[in-house]
Amino acid sequence: MADTHVGFELELWRQGVKVPFQTDSMAQKILRLARENGCDTVVFNGDLKHEIAVYRGRQEKELERFMATLQEQVDLVFVQGNHDGGLRGEPHLQLGKFFVFHGHAYPPEEALGKIWITAHVHPHISFKDDFGKLVSLPVWIKGESRSAGERYGRRVSTRIVVMPAFNTLRSGFSINTGEGKKGLLSLLDSYAVVLLDGVEVLKTDRLKATHG
Predict the structure, then answer these.
(1) Among the listed residues 119, 101, 210, the one whose alpha carbon sits nearest the alpha carbon of residue 165
(2) What is the DSSP string of 90-108?
(3) pLDDT tens digits for 110-136?
């Protein structure tokens, strides 16, 4: 899981948008997915909470309840993101052939040769429905980069997977209507876009914004 942004509702409240907290529903969804997939460990790939530097008040209470609910049934591993000030987490995680890091900073050289699992940009795909309404859906991005190792003076082809934001209230970068390239997406020479149900909806040989 990535980008749960626990406490994001507080920012919406300050903007005059009153929505109920999603903390409990997100926790129950995670536990359901863990049961369905036979998982006893959940890895959070950054931005566990929303407010970057603040860890107090209602956000603290929401996050503590969220974590306590999960820890009753699964073990938790936490990779730190740029919104996780005040929390203790790992800078990255190696799981066999996978190198897991949030994506707000470039990974260390030891990541080369691994499959990068990153997040941070909240990828979406946008389209208009039959009524002309703009719909935006969270997606996975699976791609290949020939330039990922250039920072370290090495030419290494690297597979990169960009995770969607788990918090459905969070907006993100639209892969097909966004201007330019964002984050590690700019490294991709080819990529595929996959909906949460596993359906591949877009494939291209280069990352290029399209409109229409």
Answers:
(1) 119
(2) BS-EEETTEEE--SSSPPP
(3) 999 999 999 999 999 988 888 888 888
